[in-house]
Amino acid sequence: MAVDCGVFVDWSQMGDVSRDTAPGKIDYKDLKELKQHARSGQWAKNHSQRSAVYQQLLKALPCRTVTPDAAVYRDIVGNSNSKRNPSAYPLPEFVDGTAVPCYCLKAESVGSVHAVLSCIAGQFPDISHCPSLPAVTALLLHWSADEAQCFESVSRMLACNEPGCRLLDQTFLAYQSACMTFGDLVHKYCPAAHKLMVATATDVLEVYSDWQRWVLGDLPFSFAARVMDVYLVEGYKVLYRVALAILKFYRKQRTAAGLALTKQDSAAVRSDIQAFVQNIGKSVTPDKLLEKAFSIRLFSRKEITLLQLANEKSLQQKGITVKQKRQNVQLAVNADNFSSEIVSAKEIRDIWSWIPERFALCQPQLLFTTSTHGCSLNRFYSHCEGYEPTLMLIRTTDGEVCGAFLSTDWEEWKRGGNKLSFFGTGECFLFRMKPEMERYEWVVIKHPELANAAQSTDDEQTGANDNGAPQSLEKPATDPSHLSPFLSARHFNLNSRNTSMFMAGNVDSIIIGGGEGNALYIDSELNHGRTERCLTFDNPPLCAESFQIALLEVWGFKDAMAS
Description:
The protein contains 21 helices and ten strands. By secondary structure, the chain is an alpha+beta fold. Strands 1, 2, 3, 4, 5, 6, 7, 8, 9 and 10 form a ten-stranded antiparallel beta sheet that branches. A hairpin with a 4-residue loop joins strand 8 and strand 9. The protein is elongated. Mean pLDDT is 86; it is low at 453-483.
């Protein structure tokens, strides 16, 4: 190329990456080929090719009518490629103290990143929280001819206005809800890693709040560049995938090392994960990381959008606004205010670690207990209706403890008259605490093939991106008032209704989990119960198959989001 897009790079650190080779293919008409080349690292060894492809991808982003470009930067800052003093361009407050990663740049190029970020702060006054921006800017500087071009590239990512295509979180509200969404995805897709986090960290969400930094900041340059290839093609959801893969590899390393599962301060766990990510090249290649990331069958773009919006809404109800700069969000159960006759404060914290993040913001509120309200299904309904979600705890006369997280208001039972009809969503789950702790989620989460691979058809045949980026032919709705609940069965092309029988009730009994059996059946006197395997949760019996109830409690979620 006539324009040198490697002037900021320390080529002594770039290994076998070619600086001068002709760019090769840069004009992609076939979206599947573009995605395949991005995932396979087609541009990894050719600096000029990657630069040209990036510029095409960024120029194709639909942006706001008034989006600052390279000319704006030259007018404000100038366009010197000479050494800049970083101290002359303090990092904006919205990066929250995040340093600029070196990423094989020349030492003096860090000053250029500072200058670009300083100009971004002036041109985008609405950005209140964006800690990943230093890493994104440093990466894009690699493939920019000058600072002005880098500024324009970053501006286009920030100004992208394609519905459903969010490339960068720009407020604390969006950032924190993304952290909560990542936590929800870890629950679903990395249960073993989540179990490790619960066992070792005092505050799991604090650990998960680093997820973006793992990907954009801590990964070595050769990994981060490969992630950027796919990120610009497929969008934000790629970051979730890579972070989940990192957590899976971290857990694998911890298990192989045989390290003891001792509870420690969250800061120590965060430092341990950071050190692992920074040195990930010792055990994993970029190809292996991306292979693992894309082997995870995430929910559809619509489901992720629903979850993100639900988490944002719950944070807004906690008083966090779009203009909020930072606020500590406490998700831990307050042991001083918790008193159950069935589980201890430690056990409720373990249960809370399984609950969707937007409800874990709330404190438990006792709605019904047989020890106070008596053994009556009518009184159960009268005390529990109007609350969503709820948590049911059962202790049998043999001392076994089990229960269920139930996503939907029990008042729904009335819609079927006295006929048992099932309701609820895929966020419902069963668990047992004694004799050993175990959770049983909706069977479709672990076996997505039961939903006819509807997501695969949507993503692959339409050429759509993971998060509805510009190549997508389908734009997900983003108006919360028109969104149905997250993991509603109607979002999935289920092979059998037996896999979506979550909860049901009438005047004679309540049932949780159906399909060739009931996970929990409780009679009208709340005295006798049965448990067996059901298709909806693919669970074993939660306790003795026929049991007597010693105590039953139902807990609500104080200040929980209205449905």
